[in-house]
Amino acid sequence: MIEYLKGSLVEISPTYAIVDVAGVGYYMNISLFTFEQVKDKKDVKLFVHQVIREDSFTLYGFATKDERDIFRQLISVSGIGAATARLMLSSLSPDEVRTAIVTGDVQLIKSVKGIGLKTAQRIIVDLKDKIDSRSQEAVVVGSGSNRNEAIEALVVLGFSRKAVEKAVAKVLKTNPQASIEYIIKESFKYLT
Prior knowledge:
This protein is an alpha+beta fold. 52% of the residues lie in helices and 19% in strands. Helix 4 crosses helix 7 (133-139). The protein is globular. It starts with a strand and ends with a helix.
């Protein structure tokens, strides 16, 4: 098995990357999340998942091991293939996928093109217990007390808890150690 490929980024688009490793160009399918992480780099290290079939040998590249782990968990669900898992990781970040699974957010998973209600429910049922404790801790990003206090303050101001939690998660994704004031101020951008 190939664990990762490290080399020069020869070509990149939102759906694929070609990485030159010692004179061999590897074509890898990627998600938009990975594209955003590596698009401006010359040298990259992409973690690999390979799918070997009778008629094809396909590589999927990921900017982080975490994204690859979520991808592998998604394709373990009956009815979810590599293309659907990649589409999910193009629509949602790995943390958003994990949060949706842990919290049972069917609507967020269903918002991904091509995923219906039954498939979203199956993903949650199949993976909720498989998300390891490290992953569950990642759902509550940032300083727990700052996060929770910011959420409570925004709910008191009249915003729905679900919308507030999504907004706060977006803020903490870019600044995990943010102060309460910063979290609240930046969350307004996503709530209004």
